[in-house]
UniProtKB/TrEMBL annotation, chain A:
It comes from the Bacteria. Signal peptide: none annotated. One of its GO terms (molecular function) is iron-sulfur cluster binding. InterPro entries: 2Fe-2S-bd_N, 2Fe-2S_ferredoxin-like_sf. This is (2Fe-2S)-binding protein. Keywords: Oxidoreductase. The keyword Repressor does not apply.
UniProtKB/TrEMBL annotation, chain B:
The keyword Transmembrane does not apply. Keywords: Oxidoreductase. It holds the Pfam family Fer2_BFD. InterPro entries: BFD-like_2Fe2S-bd_dom, BFD-like_2Fe2S-bd_dom_sf, FAD/NAD-bd_sf, FAD/NAD-binding_dom, Metab_Enz_Cyan_OpOx_G3PDH, Opine_Oxase_asu/HCN_bsu. Residues 375-427 form the BFD-like [2Fe-2S]-binding domain. Residues 8-315 form the FAD/NAD(P)-binding domain. This is NAD(P)-binding protein. The lineage of its organism: Bacteria, Pseudomonadati, Pseudomonadota, Alphaproteobacteria, Rhodospirillales.
Amino acid sequence: MALLQRVAEQGRRVVRFTLDGRPVEALEGDTVMTAMLTNGERLRRTEFADTPRAGFCMMGACQDCWVRTEEGERLRACGTFIADGMRLVSGGEWTS
Amino acid sequence: MSELLPPVIVGAGPAGIRAAERLVAAGLRPVVVDEAARWGGQIYRQPPDGGFTRPKTALYGFEAGKADAVHRAMAAIRDRVDYRPRTLVWNCEAGALDLLSDGTSEILPFSHLILATGATDRVLPFPGWTLPGVFTLGGSQVALKFQGCAVGRRVAFLGTGPLLYLVAYQYLKAGVEVAGVFDTTPFAAQARATTGMLRDPATLAKGLLFVGWLRAHGVPIHNGVRPVRAEGAERVEALVWRDARGQERRTGCDAVAFGLGLRSETQLADLAGCRFRFDEADRAWLPERDGAGCSSVPGVYLAGDGSGIAGADAAELAGERAALALLEDLGRPVEAARVKELDGRLARIAAFRRSLSAAFPFPVDWAAAIADDTMICRCEGITAGAVREVARSGQAREMNRAKALTRVGMGRCQGRMCGATMAELLSRTLGTGPDGVGRLRAQPPIKPLPIATIVPSPRGGEGTDGREVA
């Protein structure tokens, strides 16, 4: 079940990426955060308590929305735009 | 020599844009550095390029005219400013800024600097506040405005401040179910403060309209609320809260939008060496600025919410005013009548701002009642009890020592989300006023940098920079 709900601006070009190995779709102009949270309900699990996180401030201040790519690169999901072919993971923070 | 450097403006929101406009009008070519991809700041944030079609009236409502005017002002001077979007200023020292853009860091020397760094939501913790589905009020508005998304299907709005009713109204207008508005302010306090708000009837009328609209659409509005917890296993399923009579109640929802007013982004002013003072209205340490926007450091000017919360209208005026102060310091002629007009309008907003603070007071007792096992540091999972312990045992009597011992304020957010809480916990445990425990010192880089960042040689030196990278 998606965490974020689209309520407008749905006529944009479709972008295809993978989330935890699953092929999914987002829209051009989505942040990585929007792309992941319209296809799932978390961005990552914390390294300390293994609890789910999904971001908080959406404006680059809280640093709660770091996510990993399959290659292990770390992205700030609220400030990075989704691109075709991205391979993102929402599992443990330090594993892929 | 140094007068030959172009003035630098950090931030392209209402304050930064109006400052740039005034400097361009005087024949200067300022550098405008902004972290976002498009100008406008947070409140007038523009959707990303490409494919977004909602008109400004849909994005900004009653403020569409103002948003459009600010956007147009920047578009009109675009060719006459050195505009650096998607660029983070991560340090300020020795008369230069460190910028990060596309993975590469660059040093930008300055002689005159206007800081228009803006603000983010002020928050306090409650159990469950890290669950997916709990977002700040500002963030919930960004989701809607910038992405066309709601943070949930049925959203509870919790906290205080003008954003509380504004964002709830915007969600309702966008067709989202609003589970309720849970206002921490007692009804009586709000009613009393309304008298002061008559200084600005238009703003008061808007506030009343939001409330009226929400009520007319059956949205319950509760005053004097305190959150008990957000419930859910993997995501928010309900908000449990205590009503004004102390009775515990439960409201089913899949998201909570939450905030307690705003807090200024003061890190760069701190690194620039600006003197700070404790501001009672904002309950925060702020860089000192005079009526013109001059800081305690010659050549460094402060404008907008980044040096004290006053809202977007004041930010526009303060940005222009700071630019005029800068021009005056450069020995350029400035129009005395315009200075007088801006000063008068800023003074009126300051008076109105004081009544807004009274209408939406910071819930001091909430901070006092945070349970020891409540997580206050989202970054590293540290509890309120850990902070109280270092205060009680005498190990820490101020913020920076408490940070060193507990790591609260040392995580990735660098105290942005937990600093207010730590100040409340420390000062209450130590029995000082809120101003009695100091403030967190800013540390470069003020936001985490990728380790692969290419950092140039230090100022005037050779070799690698050697500064620590978070």
